[in-house]
Design a protein that fits this description.
Layout lengths: L11 E7 L5 E7 L6 E7 L3 E3 L5 E3 L2 H11 L7 H16 L5 E3 H15 L1 H11 L5 H19 L6
Parallel strand pairs: 4-6
Antiparallel strand pairs: 1-2, 2-3, 4-5
């Protein structure tokens, strides 16, 4: 790590701490040349392979902005979107892959979004599951209703 003050090509780690979410490490460093101290944040890289083949770093903000469109007019706060994006990132990181396809991210969004708001879920699912007809919507709504019945009558689902 180059020193940001004198550009010396080496530095010594003085202190390391994991972040609250456990996804990054904060390191306090000191330059042996000029004595300057600085902080670095290290994260495991997670890249997204877009449909065009372009590879870019994963972004929680892109997840939130994509879901924000489906949540338009719904009682969903920015905090809700931030939590959803965090859940999606944690889910994707648990796969252990360093690169993930955008379609897999879309599918990873569906579960947490369904818990957050079913109307937004249907809007989002219609894109990612490529609904082509009213029957696709009806089938998805039927599944939501069946799941509600199973949740409200656990003895019947056994």
């Amino acid at each position: 790590m180059h020193c940001p003050f004198c550009r010396h090509p080496d530095s010594r780690v003085i202190d390391s701490r994991t972040s609250d979410d456990g996804l990054s490490i904060r390191r306090r460093r000191q330059c042996p040349e000029c004595g300057g101290r600085f902080t670095t944040i290290e994260t495991a890289s997670l890249n997204v392979i877009k449909r065009s083949g372009v590879v870019e770093p994963f972004s929680r903000e892109k997840v939130a902005s994509g879901v924000r469109k489906a949540c338009q007019g719904r009682p969903v706060t920015e905090g809700d979107l931030a939590m959803l994006a965090q859940k999606v990132e944690e889910s994707v990181r648990q796969t252990g892959a360093s690169q993930i396809d955008t379609n897999e991210i879309g599918l990873a969004i569906l579960g947490p979004l369904r818990e957050l708001d079913e109307v937004a879920y249907l809007r989002f699912a219609s894109v990612y599951q490529a609904f082509e007809s009213l029957e696709d919507f009806e089938a998805s709504i039927g599944q939501l209703r069946a799941d509600h019945r199973a949740d409200s009558n656990p003895a019947e689902s056994e």
